[in-house]
């Protein structure tokens, strides 16, 4: 979605760090919208290299969390590559505070409640910064907001009250195929970082409880965001795209994490909400067109620069808008899908990826685009 290209064309088939993103992919969805006069802002996880690459965003506040290659040159967490670290150290008064302080691994299946104030949780921080952007942005121009939650990816650390809500519950039995013994050479049973291996039922139950608690915490932040859009009178002209990069096996077939073709790992949500007033012609023409000369003054030459960008963007949009996957328009693809109902009538709960007779919720990123 960021590049408008499938792996076949953008060439990144696997998990690799060190690819110079701006050089490899100079045209992105945010850069196209920025050139059309949009304010573009990102907060949360981007997971690109170099770490401060903005991918077409005017500005970004990062919580890339556990980029190991980025941590090594600094001997651990550093505000240089992670704005959340600076926030955490400032708010706790501890100059060495780190998101590793919980002793939960970024790929571990061990879980425990978040042991700091809820407002310091990365999920809450991503939402708070997004709400601040809505407050401080220039209301005379449209915007693109990219917010990316690191959770429910491990570490599994929901706030204590959500831990209590799900801990001790019984969940549906896990599907386990008879062939799992074929993975014997990869198995490390009862290891907290093991991707393949058997575990006690209590371990599975605890991991799943924390996972569900993490999802509900994201759900609450999305509802805060929805309320903010209504308060700012933006709900009727803001397109919302909701997507995840992968799921989690959550113990199915004695597997955790990702990287396999099973539904729990590979089946991800793509939800689109397009306000009714914008649905006519969606996918056929660029939805944002300013009347000729409808520019607004800005101080210190910023208005002239933005107007030039907007003119270039309008010329590009007149040719059909930014390309979607492999040259097809994303709007046209979404038009073939069922659009979500009005947010006034729906509360986001979870996105579920069906796997073996039960669902694995997966939530990761939300894109907002106003016209």
Blueprint (SSEs and pairs):
Layout: H1 7-10, H2 21-24, H3 29-35, E1 39-44, E2 59-62, H4 68-71, H5 83-92, H6 122-136, E3 143-148, H7 160-166, H8 201-231, E4 238-243, H9 263-266, E5 270-273, H10 276-279, H11 302-318, H12 330-335, E6 352-355, E7 358-361, E8 365-370
Parallel strand pairs: 1-2, 1-3
Antiparallel strand pairs: 3-8, 4-5, 4-8, 6-7
Helix pairs in contact: 3-11, 6-8, 7-8
Region (Disordered): 289-330
Organism: Bowdeniella nasicola
Biased composition (Gly residues): 321-330
Label the overall shape: globular
Q: What gap, in angstroms, lies between the N and C termini?
A: 19 Å
The main sheet orders its strands as 2-1-3-8-4-5
Name the poorly predicted regions: 285-302, 316-324, 342-364
| CATH third-tier fold name | Alkaline Phosphatase, subunit A
Instruction: Spell out the CATH superfamily.
Output: Alkaline Phosphatase, subunit A
Mean pLDDT: 77
* Overall strand count: 8
Domain count: the total is 1
CATH top-level class: Alpha Beta
**What Rg do the Cα atoms give?**
21 Å
Structural classification:
alpha/beta
Region (Disordered): 289-330
GO cellular component, one term: cytoplasm
Biased composition (Basic residues): 289-318
Keywords: Hydrolase, Metal-binding
